[in-house]
Amino acid sequence: MATALALTSTLALLQALDSGRRGWWALYAVASCAAVYSHYTALFVLVAQAGWALAVHRERAAALLGANLVAAAGFAPWLPALVRNTHSFGTKIFELLDPFGWHAISHDVVRWAVGHPFLALGTEPGPVGVVLIAAGVIAGAALGRPAPSPRGWLVALLALATPVGLALYSAVGTDTWDVRNLICSWPGLALAMAALAAAPRGWWRALTIGAVTLGYTIGAVNLLAADHQRPDYAAAAQLILAHGRSDSVAIVAAPTPGPYAAMDASLDYAGDPGRALERIGSGPLQEIMRAAPYAPLAPTPPAQLAARTTSAELFMVVPGTVPLAQLQRSGAVNARRALGPVFGTGINGRLLATVYVPVSAYLRALAGRYAAARTVHLPGFMPLSVYMLRRRSPLQSGPP
Q1: What is the mean pLDDT of the chain?
Q2: pTM over 0.90
Q3: For the chain, what are the domain ranges?
């Protein structure tokens, strides 16, 4: 959303500079304001393009200033929330997960340019894809020597705005460096790479453009692999609803700034909105919705969750691929083996490994009232497990 709105702002600005029409200036102001509402880092792109416009089109300075004042006025009601967010625990998560420094810059910029925020370059786009993209861009720049133009400089500024701005902000202020926070500059980067690849003439141009296109095509095909896609909460929702709508569902709600978890949204999209989910290791949804983002809330005791679980069947949606029998015995889990190399190592692994402790406590609190019926593992760069348990009859009750 932020990328689309920032790009809309850029296109509207160019039209407004060329035509001077008020409608384009109005769209520029609205899109700029909405882009910052969508993501704060859009501001770097907006500042860069406004600075370029002021330098190249001084005759439009008054209209440019007026449109930006309108955008700023539209964002002003959110300034208190911006101040709170800047000092919230949620912002500090960036520093914990991806500490700012040269390693983070070199690692994240390359993934932002040609790869994926959660997959290694050797996986996405893969060694061949990386070589083809780099060769096409470098050869195009060497053979073509594109002449700079005012709008060419704008493209360069759009590509550099967020990486440079975010690096400076993280160095002198709050560390908010993260590969996904660079997204608003990707259209500028894409145009810059395309311009370099298209700079040569004749057959050289066909070769350089072909190399870059083929490299990204290989990356796109690689992303189709099931293990390279997002956690498949949609499939988990379909599996649950295929068995009926009266079953209990327990989830592990990953720490997010909003009250809704991925499973809430997936069930909503699947046609079962508002289902009451038991949140293992978290507070109830009503308390989360009333609290501030990232507010430390006491989790519901596992015994209390278990006492509320009375349906004939119980579904548990848990990250990773831990055998149910192991969770029934203990919450001590090998995070790398359960979650894979992306989320099972480093600070991510240490953070996510803690979710299995309340899951294990919840299962033990069920006190043998439910028996394992089926386990489905769903692939993704963070795999999921859906455990289906069936309530025992009174004659079957006993140890799990």
Answers
A1: 90
A2: no
A3: 2-128+147-189, 233-391
